Give the backbone structure.
Amino acid sequence: QAAELVRTAGKLRRDNTEWVVTIRNDVEAPHELESLIVVPDTLGRGDVVRVADVARIHDSTADPIQYYRVGTNALRVGDAVKAAVEEMRGELLPGTQLTLEYDGSREVRRQLTDLRLRALAAAIVIFLVLLVFLGSFRTAGIVFATVVFSVLIAVNLLYFGKFSLNVLTMAGLAMGFGLMVDNSIVVLENIYRRRRAGGEEARDAADKGTRQVALPIVAGTLTTVIVFLPFLYLQGELRLYYLPFAYAVGFSLLASLFVAFSFVPGLAARALAGSGPGTSMTAGTSHPFYVRLYRGVLKFALDHPIIIILLTAAAFTGSYRLFDKHVVKGAVWGRGWGQETYIQIIFNMPRGAELTRTDELVRSFEAKLKTIPEIERFTANVMPERGFMRVTFPDSLENTYVPVAIKEQMVAYSYLFAGAEVRVYGYGPSFYGGGSSPPTYTVKLLGYNYEIVRDIAEDLARRLRRFNRVREVDTNVSSWWWTDKAHEFFLSVDRPRLAGFGLSVEELLRFVTSNVQGQVSLNRIKVGGEEVVYSVKLEGYRDFSFADLRELLVPTATGETVRLADVAEVGRREVLNRIVREDQQYQRLVGWEFRGPRKLGDRIRDAAVDASVLPAGYSIEKERDLFWTDEEQRQIYMVLIFAVLLIYIVTAALFESLRAPFVVLLTVPLALIGVFLVFFYTGASFTRSAYIGVIMMAGIVVNNAILVVYHINEIRRAGKELKEAIIQGTLERVRPILMTTLTTVLGLLPLILFSETMDATIWNALALATIGGLIASTIFVLTSIPVLYYLFERRSAAATYPAPAAEPSAP
């Protein structure tokens, strides 16, 4: 401390200026410290003790405070690092190796490859569906070309928007395959219908047929695209994940609209130029059997509207009850996100534990893991009071029971170590797909008295332990690895006894600090103008253990020594790690693992929580998924509300009515019937992605209703009676509705088929929500929507519609 001397000596005056004189004694090199005087010459004999007489100065690196034995890289950086490593191999010293311990890009590559294959399968399925319905390779090729051109345009738009082709944007493009052909199907079907029924020339049929459906197609596309507009206001992780997805879907749909109004009518006119007026999109000229069958169903529905309304209400109520009772809700990605099975081991050491002690514990687990041949690799991250291990497995074992069995071995092995807290967790398909390990649960307790909150937590834990499927109940969970309880080593000085040996507390602590590896504070000194950290230690301090601390001999002023245990109490005790308050209430989290299905675990959690008797002012909250915050949930709900509002605005502008759009909007709750049922029957979790899927579905399912209602209004303007207009307008739109639904649904199926779990990827829940909602909406658009339209418009059925204006001739 005396080496770096900076002191103000006083002031000097010169003329009218006052100068401050400062004495500086800077150290320019470490060896200068050896000349510092430790014991001065108090007797005038010239005998002094310098640092060089009793110590050596070492200019070296500081003692390590953390070990980290693995690293990860992003996809592009990973490729660059691996290329650089290959170049370095020839320059390595003998006996030195570079080993790839973990490749974080492998899983990303696997998902991208899997997504490309699924997108290709979706394209093939869509083409086959078009071929079956259209009955012609030429006609099916015209519609299918929409996908190709739309994807190319969308990719260019993503490029200029500075988006990359990653899992999210590619999933958006793949999910849009089925939607891209919808507009072209409606345009082409209407062109062929006018050519067949009206005998118009090919050019006129293409021109007028496209114009006739232009407004409903634009409105339908806008309702799908516009639901993504509120995504611009998402924040945080939601924006990071779902905004690129929304841009990809939106760009592809806008591109499909452009192609449907340019490429499709142009090719359709050329294809029909050499054919007669009777040309049809299929071999026959009569209505297909499904249209004739549907005519009878529609007439029955219009004759018995009350029955249809009651059946629809019953379907909604029943499906919602199944969904609410049996479907797991609130997860972020789902149980299988990432698709990698691994075990995580977390070590918590007592407060003040040295790095070497934590490392010894971690190394003992490493030695145990080395004896298990099924393990592919393990990595360790060691800090003074905390450590982490990650254990991974070969691909051949990722969906077997082997990782679960190894996890149980590690749990049993952790019981052999006292004085440290070891937790073992399993993640991935083996544990959540086919294995028997977690889900984990956490509930939050709040109250104004810490002890009462603790007692409530202990009472809840006792009830939970009665269930044989509940394991590892912890009443002190605070986050992933923290607990409210902790242990620390302490030194309690007996001041009167210490004074009897002529020692001060400061001298005692300084001597103890010099013997142990840890230090009370980080001291700094400037050497050569650079500030460095220094500490003073006695030789052998690295090998000094807590057991040696009691027997430490402390020198006294008389030259004798005293045992540390004679002047201070040395021990280990339990302390509070931290106190958490929320709204001025003490917070405590109780966590546990449940060995069984999530649905049963939810029921047991609810039963245990509901049985808790709480004093006034105390509460228990069932914690949602750790990453699914209240703020994120509010954002999702606000996006959904604004999406529905924007759909209403678009449809109101189309119909020039404030009442008619309500019929179209009723498609959204009816589509939820399919969403409820598809998640119930597949056993999938209703994750955060599922909420996004419902928002996207809301924009899609109204398209068919817009198509039907707009066409019915056109027929009514021509002078048809209400019921006849509903029947004719709906029948003439059955075919394009079924075609667009099948192409979209079957185009999405490859994205979820052959997945290891229904929660395997981010797009599984998106595709499930869209598929379920679209199937249900198609059924109800063809049954309930005509009935609802009939009930809405029956009172105004006597109103006269003006004759339609003459269609403009082709330019």
In short: The longest helix spans residues 236-273.
